[in-house]
Amino acid sequence: MVTLWTYYEPVTSREVSPADYAHALELLHAGMRELDVPTPHFTDRVEQAQQLVANRDRTPALADVDRELLGDTLRSLRRVIGERCGAEQLLHGEPHPGNLLTTENGLLFIDLETCCRGPVEFDLAHAPEEVGEHYPGVDQDVLRECRLLVLAMITTWRWDRGDQFPNGRRLGREWLGRIRAAVDRNGLE
Questions:
Q1: Which of 125, 114, 116, 66 is closest to 88 using CA atoms?
Q2: CA–CA separation, 19 vs 71, rounded Å?
Q3: Which residue in 132, 133, 134, 184 is a FRET match for 123, CA 20 to 30 A apart?
Q4: What pLDDT does 85 receive?
Q5: What's the rounded Cα separation, in Å, for the pair 121 and 147?
Q6: Quick one: signal sequence residues (predicted)?
Q7: Residue 75: predicted pLDDT
Q8: What local confidence, expressed as pLDDT, does residue 5 receive?
């Protein structure tokens, strides 16, 4: 069999510290800054979520009030983050814990099919909250906005009638509550 993949023997599962996670992501970002490849912008993914919210045939179970909440959140945060973020670069796109392997060679990120361009805060929004405290030079306000944006995106995907994520609808309802609470607390610009 021929493969272009490298197999990494997993290390017995151990807790990854937020500092180690941040360092691994920082190394990945440093390497990605050296690449010049055409990739979509993070706002393209936001646009896909906006289109899904607007498509009642694909999201028939999404209540109108929730559709409005998601649509407004996606639209507003896409604009605000675009205006506020500084430098942009090639990103992993979804460096959440499920895409992080613990190997004898250290921490490695996998599943690079969602690479995009944007601020590092967009990538950090997928990581556990404590990781952002260990990543140098992060704009905490942009990170907070990116976290809410990512939450709105993944919540939208849970309402796609073809979604097969385990317990997706339950999570979608829970996440709608978190978005509503954040919007009530902070408002949307």
A1: 116
A2: 34
A3: 184
A4: 77
A5: 8
A6: none
A7: 97
A8: 77
Q: What is the CATH number of domain 18-186?
A: 3.90.1200.10
94-152 residue pLDDT tens? 999 999 999 888 899 999 999 999 999 999 999 999 999 999 999 999 999 999 999 99
Cα separation of 169 and 161, whole Å?
10
Q: What per-residue confidence (pLDDT) applies to 168? A: 94
| Domain residue spans of the chain | 18-186
Instruction: Output the 3-class SS for the chain.
Output: CCCCCCCCCECCCCCCCHHHHHHHHHHHHHHHHCCCCCCCEHHHHHHHHHHHHHCCCCCCCCCHHHHHHHHHHHHHHHHHHHHHCCCCEEECCCCCHHHEEEECCEEEECCHHHCEEECHHHHHCCCCHHHHHCCCCCCHHHHHHHHHHHHHHHHHHHCCCCCCCCCHHHHHHHHHHHHHHHHHHHCCC
Q: Are 42 and 117 in contact (CB under 8 A)?
A: yes
Give me 55's structure tokens.
Answer: 């498509």
- The amino acid that residue 152 corresponds to is A
